[in-house]
Amino acid sequence: MGEAAGGPGGGAVLRLRDREFGDEPLVMAIVNRTPDSFYDRGATFAREKALQRVDEVVAEGADIVDIGGVKAAPGTEVDVAEEIERTAPFVAEVRERHPDLIISVDTWRHEVGREVCQAGADLLNDAWGGADPKLAEVAAEYGVGLVCTHAGGLRPRTRPHRVAYRDVVADVIERTTALARRAVEVGVDPHRVLIDPGHDFAKNTWHSLEVTRRLHELVATGWPVLVSLSNKDFVGESLGLPVAERMYGTLAVSALCAWQGARVFRAHNVKPTRQVVDMVAVTRGVRPPARAVRGMA
Amino acid sequence: MIVAVACVPQAPLLLPGVTGRPVPEVEELRAAARAAIRDVVEAGVDEIVVLGAAPASRGYPPDAPAPAGRIAPAPDRRPEADPLPVALAVGRALLEPCPVPWRLEGIGADEPARAAAEAGEKIAARPGRTGLVVAADGSARRGEKAPGYVDPRAPETDARIRDALAGADTAALLGLDPGRCAELLIAGRAAWQAMAAACRDGEWAARLRYAADPFGVAYFVATWERRPANREGSAG
Questions:
Q1: What does the angle CA A181 – CA A149 – CA A77 come to, to the nearest 5 degrees?
Q2: What does pTM read for this prediction?
Q3: Nearest-by-Cβ selection for A297 from B11, B17, B20
């Protein structure tokens, strides 16, 4: 099914670090080394707080941590040196504390990618749609994974303004699979490439809802799909709720994406996300129940 | 003639894969049951007869599907056409892989004691050295969380069955009251009576290997091996 779009095939193995994953969903915990990200507003900017957050999310069942040094929305300029300073030493420290943890870094810059790979990162989460083409080359050079996100061609840290698509899902598939194919061409292991429709990125709420409803079309490309839904504006606008009250809405759309076959869930609220996506996976039959004995004794 | 017997529970949760991830209590029970059956196979048998409750007292095809897809339907485990009765499927699942041929004999769960005994005698009359695997279990009314809630009479009847299995007391099993057993949701009564009738003649070395009720149902695992003195008289 995925051959037309070039993916390794539906239900294909996803490789991260030295492990291989099938259809069971993975939870990627957001760890911000930023003073200004929208949800936690700097709560884990300090090194100790961020390390504590990593320990907590691991205990709550996160498979991956996604460390970010620059908030997605426009704001104070963070240059390459500053972004490296926020992320690379921290990656090294997390690697030392959690030798088997899968570490992702949220960056679009290849200079940052290189430093964090040397520090022990396993995955580069390029949320800005290949704005810096050299990032994929760094992923190839270090044998790490790459997330190819739909950002509609926007420059990093810009907001959607009066966006319109003939077919948003078609655009998402076209751009993300093109990025994925290019990553493989420059040497990234095809089993280490994910695609992300980029909810809220270059999309208004209607576009993000359309992508959510039709997520199965992305899954059908054969590339493993990552979704980043957590507490985003499309949830907030859908329910009329501020950032602090979007968890249930986030979990609802997480369940819908899990049902359609998304493989990785980037989340702030790890424990509830873990339970929701695991429950959906058990219902789909891609994860066994923990303990089914009722009515069978 | 019957040279060895293994008695194992008939619970659906013993069918492979139906608990999801391995459940420790089930795995402990399964290990005890498989060890008991292994002893029977290693007693030098020509064939195994699996005996268990069924809608009717008759033989079932040895390769008929287990009812796993009816009990635990899942995307990769769809309901089967004409599956085995659960007890026979459980007995066979615990037996496999098995180096000797096996037969599956159903015993109507509501058969009167006499009919059950006659079914057992037929099995005892089979030529060669027969190993018997009996899938049967005790009361499902052993507590507030038991499938059949509480019946205060359950422990006493289960204890009688346990002692009979531990001591190869065929008379005690043949004496179980079908009405009382039905009230106590003892699903294994008819199979045990068939087993007892099949083993009436001879001396047995009995061993109780498991007796517990982790889910409110009385499970027993026991082996009976015919004592050598009787084995001589059975040659041929």
A1: 125
A2: 0.89
A3: B11
